[in-house]
Input
Amino acid sequence: MKRTARQTSTRTLADLIRAVGDKRAVTYIDSDGEGSVRTIEIQDIRTPNKGPIIVRAMCRMR
Output
């Protein structure tokens, strides 16, 4: 599993867009690094002018 906490937002966004293009699920860990690990299928990515990248996705667990 690739950790993205130390990479730039631009690099993380590129990785997410690549996953969408490849129709590949990604593994998500919450921003605190805690909680359950979820595999999600990305539906939409939004990049507001300010704030974090917003990912709308379907969780494969639920």
Notes: The chain has a mean pLDDT of 79. The first strand starts at residue 26 and ends at 28. Residues 9-21 form the longest helix (13 residues).
